[in-house]
Design brief:
Length: 254
């Protein structure tokens, strides 16, 4: 158990660091947990990873809040919708074959990577072309979709949220990352409520992992705010590329 815990804590630190900057920390933390603890049910491991995830995300959100002005109406609409469907996704996690969803996500990610790479101004400057009412409606709609995905599958949720806040709602990378953290907190909380009520959380692993995830989130947020939008854009591309490789591997070899 000691060796397993050390590995899980190191992974949690790295996941917290990545997640604080551009989301996607679950792409590292979730597969690693499944690999290190293969003798537990998948639902139990997914529930366990939600504790460190919400710890790091909460710290990142707090640090971003000191320098970013939140659009509260948009944020509340997105977070509320995401919370509700994350509960549903967590409930259905063992009832839907992920192989049906992953090829679609892979195509979307490839398009995102290409668009972000070739559009140098993507996420660098805010470009709001919608009324507040339109923003709230779109935020709620995408919150429903991404919240369901987070409850059902999970990894990559932060990156998808950042993408929506930039491409759909017109935020810059820093603002998008800050808002995404709050919404991700809501989806993690919903999953924790469900998984804990059904006994699917290993707290002996989850609590130490949460402490290390907090450490990673602290340094990740500090670096993102220090370096600014251009740095976050580059980091976003790296994480999206890693996500593409992960989903492609899952589709081709599993």
């Amino acid at each position: 158990m000691v060796n397993e815990l050390i590995l899980l804590c190191l992974v949690a630190f790295a996941a917290g660091f990545i997640d604080a900057i551009v989301g996607g920390g679950g792409l590292l933390q979730t597969p690693a947990t499944l690999l290190i603890l293969p003798h537990y049910p998948v639902a139990t491991l997914l529930g366990t990873t939600k504790i460190p995830s919400i710890a790091g995300t909460s710290l990142a959100a707090f640090k971003y809040s000191k320098q970013v002005k939140f659009n509260l109406k948009v944020l509340i609409a997105c977070a509320s919708a995401a919370f509700c469907t994350a509960l549903l996704g967590a409930f259905l996690v063992s009832r839907i074959d992920n192989s049906v969803i992953k090829p679609i996500i892979l195509v979307v990610l490839i398009l995102v990577a290409l668009y972000t790479y070739f559009n140098k101004q993507f996420g660098i400057h805010q470009a709001k072309n919608h009324t507040l009412k339109q923003q709230v409606l779109m935020a709620a709609t995408f919150g429903l979709l991404i919240g369901f995905y987070d409850g059902l599958i999970g990894p990559g949720t932060g990156s998808f949220l950042i993408l929506v806040f930039i491409a759909v709602l017109g935020f810059d990378f820093i603002g998008a990352s800050a808002h995404a953290k709050i919404v991700n907190m809501a989806t993690n909380l919903a999953a924790i409520i469900y998984f804990s009520s059904t006994g699917h959380i290993l707290f002996q692993y989850a609590i130490p992992m949460a402490i290390f995830n907090l450490g990673g989130a602290y340094f990740g947020t500090k670096l993102a705010l220090l370096k600014g939008n251009k740095f976050v854009r580059i980091f976003f591309l790296i994480v999206v590329f890693g996500t593409i490789l992960k989903f492609a591997y899952d589709i081709l070899y599993k």
